[in-house]
Amino acid sequence: VRVVGVPLVDVFPVASSPVPARRRLNRQSLAIGPASDAKLAGSRIAVAGLSGGGSHVVQQLAHAGVGALILLDDDHVDETNRGRLVRSRHDDDGELKTNVMRRLVEGIDPSISVTAVPYRTSSPEGLAAIREADIIVACVDRFDVRAQINAIARRYSIPLVDIGMTLESEGEALKSATGQAVLAVPGAACERCMPLLSDAVLDWERQHAPPGYDRN
Known about the structure:
About 30% of the residues lie in helices and about 20% in strands. The protein has helices spanning about 25-30, 35-40, 55-65, 95-110, 125-130, 145-155, 200-210; strands at about 1-5, 10, 45-50, 70, 115, 135-140, 160-170, 175-185. The protein is globular and about 55 Å long.
């Protein structure tokens, strides 16, 4: 339960009896504490954007033992993006990315609840799903989509983790590789309070990077 005010107050449920740690998470429980298993099992994480970094995030959250995953992406697998989708297969072309990621999660731990949402976060279906998350992980490749997710996280007081990378090349030479991992939590700075998002950045994107895959 989150009590909205100044400051924000979070009230967490207290288990009536200890939950036995899962054997497959033995090494993790030894590393971060015996209560970690139950906390992870009780968490609901939304991942927006499932190619590239997003598919790795989904895979590792499943290995870590989260209880529920909300997977958001309206795109389909094809020959050009299959190499950026963990555990995709040659016969997945035409399949929804959300379905491929559901299969990946179920192969790791079938007890994890998976909600596959083949829509954008800005759609009514996407918004209804993502607002149920305890944490949102944004793995998207556009700033206007980041701004939408940032607004959703702020409106519903949901912690947001934003990851991304930009590769810049010239011919066969890699000029630069930059990236970010940003945490925006309720009661602290949002992404518009950081250098990552601004009206200037969004204006530049509208003028120089129309929607679609970044050919650079």
